[in-house]
Amino acid sequence: MVVTSVIKNNRFKIIFEDRNGHNIDLDYQLHDSIVAEKWFKKIKHLKNIPIDDIESNNVNLENLYQIYNEFCKFANLDPISVKKINQPLLNQLHSIYKETHDRLSSKKDNSILYKFHHAIHHHEDHKNKLRKNYNIGWGIKEGPLSEDFLCNEYYSNSLQKNNIYLPWAELAKKPFVYWADKEPSSQGQVNELCKPHKKLCAKFKIALEDLIPEKLDPTFLEWFETFKPLWLKHHNIKKWDEIDELSAPLLAIAKHSQTLNSLKFKKIII
What residue numbers bound the domain in which 115 lies? Predict the structure, then answer.
């Protein structure tokens, strides 16, 4: 359980609840940046609204078959044949999600749409299933607070355990993920389906471990070099490297060394 309260000088507290129901009082300092200030203003609007369990990784996403069939019932679609979960299938499912998003996002009780999307990415994890971030979000409730803002120039050189960061939240993929998923190699598709960090949302993530971005795969870099100049120009950014691919904008600095993995988020209080 987490409770956040603002105190003077841009400091606030996060209170987690452990498995025994005990509160753990932790201190944070808001980072001095326009991204952090914009994010914190959004958080103030959401202080009395429950978080979304899907956006906050509080639901089981292992059974992709079941989730996909539930999605098809909601979307009034005939499900495609699913025999084996592999990257071509996940690419196909992601295309179905994108093609139906605008129509289904306007329907009531549409949580299965987002559960389906998260389940696809859950099975696309290219390294391992270890949880490296504590994710908190409000789903569609935070939608009106989202704004267009190019965030890449505010990315940190590394992630530090317990600090709060702004997650990437585009209806697309980052270039390395796009390449690793074997998506189409054409300039038009890359421009459309690969995006930098252009959405500033209210959601946030807390790093559960330190991370220093490693140099990207040379084979990817060679592939991306063909599309990179026009892609950078298309999205009006100056560069794309391991920092942009693997890091995030810093929002708040932890004034503690508590391990958070087993703790539970409840709500924000300002």
Answer: 58-130
